[in-house]
Write a structure and sequence with these properties.
The structure is a single chain. By secondary structure, this protein is of the alpha/beta class. The chain has a single domain, classed as 3-Layer(aba) Sandwich (Rossmann fold). Helix content is 40%, strand content 12%. It has nine helices and eight strands. The longest helix is centred in the middle third of the chain and has 26 residues. The radius of gyration is 17 Å and the shape is globular. The relative contact order is 0.15.
């Protein structure tokens, strides 16, 4: 069943979108702003963000490197009002050689999952005040992901896509566990997840896929533009019909492209014990 994509009026609501200076994040932020939302956007490169986000006031931009846990904390501590929407979108995809964040953590696991775990942790009082919708932008690569509990940081062997899929599965498990905990403890937060299918963005710039994604996107074959790839996240983040614990993605062939639909949860993410363990391990890594 194809789901409606109308973005409701968001006047008076505060939305935070990570990774908004490019790709999916820029498309998501643009649609939220057009619907009247007030935006607060953590960006690593202010100059780039000011060029690419001409549709938003400069005051909405705040410098923060999501790969730095100190930056995440500092950004969150400056938020002084209820947050109504949080879109965890920033990401890194498959650098060919293993890289680490400022905190010495494998870059994909740190950026795609731990930074958003930390952001929610530090923003929790503001999210509760706003009875927020938290949408995590994952990847259908999470379907093939496996959590290497004994080597989360890929120190014993680094394979780019395996580390990427693991980080996105961890992000999805976190989104599900956040919704379960909010329901059980009365936080008032709704948490769900969405993926863009195949969308041509700069996320693939470090991979051999980049050239082919751009060609297929221009031809309208299987690969979507960033604007189209943003639709599942927009639906998950704003529709009154999108539910907590749901996963949304394109409804076309193999869920690679098309209008948003709710999807069956990947088998890799169905065991709540894995979600609980991801939460516990993340807390330990963050001290």
């Amino acid at each position: 069943m194809t789901l409606d994509l109308t973005v409701p009026d968001l006047t008076g609501r505060l939305a935070i979108v990570t990774g908004a200076s490019d790709g999916l994040g820029r498309a998501i932020a643009g649609r939220l702003a057009a619907a009247g939302a007030e935006l607060l956007l953590p960006v690593r490169d202010l100059a780039k963000a000011e060029r690419t986000l001409a549709h938003v006031p400069a005051k909405t931009l705040r410098r923060a490197d999501l790969a730095s846990l100190d930056d995440v904390r500092a950004f969150a501590e400056r938020v002084d009002r209820p947050v109504h929407l949080l879109v965890n979108n920033a990401g890194v995809m498959a650098p060919p050689a293993r890289q680490t964040s400022r905190d010495g953590l494998e870059l994909q696991f740190a950026t795609n999952h731990l930074s958003h775990f930390a952001l929610v942790h530090h923003l929790l009082p503001r999210l509760r005040e706003g009875r927020a919708r938290v949408t995590s932008v994952v990847s259908f690569g999470a379907r093939d992901g496996r959590i290497a509990w004994g080597d989360l940081q890929s120190e014993r062997g680094y394979r780019p896509m395996r580390a990427y899929n693991q980080s996105k599965l961890a992000q999805l498990l976190f989104a599900l566990e956040l919704d379960r905990r909010s329901t059980g403890e009365g936080w008032g937060i709704t948490s769900n997840a969405a993926h863009p299918g195949l969308a041509s963005t700069n996320l693939q710039a470090a991979t051999p896929l980049d050239r082919w994604f751009k060609r297929l996107s221009r031809a309208g074959i299987l690969v979507q533009t960033a604007d189209r790839g943003a639709r599942p996240a927009l639906y998950a983040a704003t529709s009154p019909h999108a539910r907590g614990g749901g996963l949304y993605g394109p409804g076309g062939l193999a869920h690679l492209a098309g209008a948003p639909v709710e999807q069956r949860l990947y088998r890799s993410a169905r065991d709540p014990r894995d979600a609980e363990q991801v939460w516990a391990v993340s807390e330990k890594l963050l001290g």
